[in-house]
Amino acid sequence: MIPLRDTIxxxxxxxxxxxxxxxxxxxxxxxxxxxxSELAQVFQQWGIVPLRFTHPRxxxxxxxxxxxxxxxxxxxxxxxxxxxxxxxxxxxxVEDRMGRTGFLCFYLLSGLAAGVGHVLTNPYSSVxxxxxxxxxxxxMGAYLLLFPHARVVTLIPIVIFLQVVHLPAVFFLxxxxxxxxxxxxxxxxxxxxxxxxIAWWAHIGGFVVGVLWALVLKQRTPRRLRRTSRYYxxxxxxx
Length: 239
Known about the structure:
Elements: E1 2-6, H1 15-31, H2 36-46, H3 50-54, H4 66-69, H5 77-98, H6 100-121, H7 133-146, E2 151-158, E3 161-168, H8 169-190, H9 200-220, H10 223-228
Antiparallel strand pairs: 1-2, 2-3
Helix pairs in contact: 1-5, 5-6, 5-7, 6-7, 6-9, 7-8, 7-9, 8-9
């Protein structure tokens, strides 16, 4: 399933979301101008290498910097485009609800939690992990709770045909999360490493942080404000 857009307009320009997309894009453009051997060294230095956190001889304060720096590195065109597209679809509305400063803090915290989750579930891996997927998973988790009545316009390939459908956000994001949990469980049961180069548990950790953050936000948001919000779905049902 490929998300195309959601059905909820943002109230204001998503400055933080756009800035994050631009930063990731600029860093990736710098990456593609680096020789592959040198780029591997960049990933090794600035990506998350779980073994550095768990092996006594490799532990250092610098390792914790990679929990942040890894969020702004990507392994290829599909990787960065897929991540930034998801951030664009779901980030603007979450930024609307959290405010710009709150959203930036939330995004970074989700990415940090994702990195920690990856280290805990892959403690002996020496393979560097990069990407904003964990932070964006947090955005998706928050979106699930904050906009349960939204719909996601989704492209579904069926054999040789392409079908565009409007899926409830609860279904789309719930299905995505369950697929991450299943894949993560399989990766632990088989090799104990991130299967296929995908840090499943980083996604899961980020998503859970997003849900919990949104849960707290909803509890602290006055009911009157929630009732008068102009967020709506395709059927103009007020939320």
